[in-house]
Write a structure and sequence with these properties.
4-stranded parallel beta sheet; alpha/beta; homotrimer
Chain lengths: 340, 340, 340
């Protein structure tokens, strides 16, 4: 198809392997932009027709003309956004899959919270003032340290003592501690057809907290606290399926988020997104975050998930689903509906 | 095939997605019976040729004639049995896949235990009288609360103290606490060929107990006990494989259960079933329960499991295996052998 | 292809199912050698064209002529090596896939450590003398007890007290305790093309340590220590994917191990191998062991892994990859390059 002289491009990290493989499966040529020295995975798996290396992410803006000339469409992922920065992404001239206007609602915790609350989702309580703490909380730091340093406090006094160990941290959130299990829900909403899909689920694999329980309570108590301090740094993802009776509610949660997104910006949220939830023994589903783009939790499903295989009789990763959506848009002459 | 004017029907929950998808892959038309408002998953994945909505499960008996007229064969799953009730299932007039007579042996804990013991399986000890507790035990409640409230007691005294917190609970079992890891074994036994298959394995994902270890022992001790009380409510399932050297024993366990089932009811157990086990560091396999039908633990394998792919060169979920069995029975003119 | 009158043979255990299935998919006939009574899995899944039963593993040497007559090529796995013994494997006359000379570098902990260190990998510190213990350590026993008895000690004094409970154990290692999550990396290095592949990743499922965190800290403290003693006996494996940004480093780790292996024995390491790692919250990857052959952690991927599906448009297990390598070697008339 002549229309497929468009090329799919992304930054080599996060979920680039499935994005590029999925694009090739849909008939696109692919481009990966890599930091020098980080090209090997894309060569090894042979998913990139072209590899453009840059020295640092600031150079990214310089290759825009090159990408435009190649008719590249950029697929954003979390590393892309983190490396380039929200503001620069918005100024970006290369055609971009997704709605850029949604980015600030995702990155600003207050706007994000308002969006999810207005969509009717259940959120953990946030305590703006430590004086208000009336139940166990988890204190999460933002910024460079990733998932390190987070701590649980049982009350205000406990919080005041523990926060002293983090004198340098000013940017944190005091969140109600919800005891339940994590479940990451992968959605895809088509701006072409108005249909919502559930692509799958994952459970993150976090270091060191997912190993903590392998140390007996006696040993944990015996070891110095600093040696068994939990950290929540994501190092991988595991496939999982959800109890089927939750699906009707999970579908509605996704629909409500999309519906509400159209109130905050006309085009609304479309393409892949993820609700990051905690499911409690009382069958409550708490949402603590939204990712308004592809998440790395879809990486176990480069060859399709237990859910996509129900709908498609071919392997359908989220990366491939994006490429198919772009192909459908090109065919319908509605590319404007998927570029943001 | 003209014989495929039979239709496969089930209730929309539990493992209905793979049952319906599997039936379609085998060439059957499908019907899903849903509570009003719970149809969305079956529409989204397009696995049902007909959706019949009912207001509550009592209405189910009223649609029997409708189902019979459509030549529907009902595939039971745990939610089906739970919603309709064992007694009503037995009176059910719509053709039913499986042996209804096995249901009471599964639902009555004493009969179930006798069956498994006579099959030579290793079971956790049950203490009928708290006075007999001579080792750590887990106390499990039955009925509406699901996996909530279960507690571990180290001896009789500990039991007597903790049971006080559950004055309303009369129906519980005091089970030897086996420290090992859970493994759920998915079998399929063909009443047509006499062959037993291992379809796969899973590990349940339970809230909140599968998150408990992510809280450091220090934090657990600091938080009020009520905030870190374990509960065992299933919210999902994860794929897993077993150490290959266990397979010969696991196959024999399945064979022994089937053999023994033929002593308690002539047709015996056939179709999918699951042994719910704990594997200890001493290579013991304790069986704590049997499910005499498809389990939700097979849901990670809608597109086949690491085991079914060894035997079949096409995706073979347990749901599809059921449909294939029915198709084979129709072809052999032996439907009576698979309907109960 | 006439050349495929070679047969693929292995011992019935560990990863034999995928090895045999993979060999058949590549067009080979297959032979499985089983202890009497352990044939059932290979019949059930129909992966063996011939089953040779032996009474015990000492009989294995007696069937060598039979195997040679059939033009069998033996694929070794951990159980094969463990049952036959390193020394006997080296004397083995049947054509053997892999480099036998590498075996002693894997089985001798000092040689193994030197190899990995020289390859530039980060290893946990080993304390030869308890007096040197200056941080928390894990004490691992070797030999018959598998993963049982391992203990964590916070300092020399703690070590000296705990080691008293194991008067019979002389063969142990005192290893720095690294708090992070386990990640098992499956590599394949082709001695024909010089290419390295990442086949996938797994997480072991160990009894009882992977259930320990499901017991609340309060309950663990209340139960007798002997009832909650951790053990690390592998009973299964779970699929997992790694954070994509780690891949460039992981590929280099594999390349460095292969490069170094060529210094210790001319042919070096080739075929499948596994680095057993711990990933810390500081993004460090500690390697605590190498397996210089197929690992059971590849068993979740009999139908391909999220990684092999990127490279191959057909299901490529590690077992099948081995068979393909042998087939390629036969075609190139370079069998000597893959037999050791």
């Amino acid at each position: 198809m002549a229309l497929l002289n468009y090329k799919i491009a992304t930054i080599g990290s996060h979920s680039a392997l499935q994005i590029l493989k999925g694009a090739k499966d849909e008939g696109f040529s692919t481009i990966v932009i890599c930091l020098k020295g980080r090209e090997k995975p894309y060569k090894l798996y042979n998913v990139a027709d072209e590899i453009i290396t840059i020295k640092n992410y600031k150079e990214f803006s310089k290759i825009q003309d090159k990408l435009i000339k190649r008719k590249a469409i950029i697929i954003p992922h979390a590393s892309f956004i983190a490396y380039i920065g929200h503001d620069d992404v918005e100024k970006f001239k290369v055609p971009y899959y997704g709605n850029k206007k949604i980015l600030k609602f995702e990155s600003d915790r207050n706007l994000e919270r308002k969006w999810l609350k207005n969509a009717g989702l259940k959120l953990p309580k946030i305590f703006k003032n430590p004086k208000d703490i009336d139940r166990p909380v988890i204190v999460k730091f933002h910024g460079a340290k990733g998932g390190k340093g987070y701590f649980i406090a049982k009350n205000e006094k406990d919080f005041n003592q523990k926060i002293k160990h983090h004198p340098e941290e000013k940017d944190y959130v005091i969140q109600e501690y919800i005891l339940g299990v994590h479940m990451y829900i992968h959605y895809f909403y088509s701006s072409l057809t108005g249909e919502l899909e559930i692509m799958g689920f994952d459970k993150r694999y976090e270091s060191n907290v997912d190993s903590l329980g392998r140390i007996s309570a006696r040993d944990q108590m015996a070891l110095p606290a600093s040696k068994v301090d939990p950290a929540y740094v994501i190092v991988g993802n595991m496939p999982i399926v959800v109890r089927e009776s939750f699906l009707p509610r999970i579908i509605e949660m996704g629909e409500d988020v999309v519906k509400e997104s159209k109130k905050i910006t006309p085009e609304g949220l479309f393409g892949p997104f993820c609700l990051e939830t905690i499911m409690t023994p009382d069958d409550e589903i708490y949402v603590f975050e939204i990712s308004a783009r592809i998440v790395a939790g879809t990486n176990p499903y480069t060859h399709g998930s237990p859910y996509t295989w129900l709908k498609y009789d071919e392997p359908m990763s989220t990366g491939r689903r994006i490429a198919r959506e772009i192909k459908n848009a090109i065919r319908r002459n509605e590319l404007n509906k998927v570029l943001g």
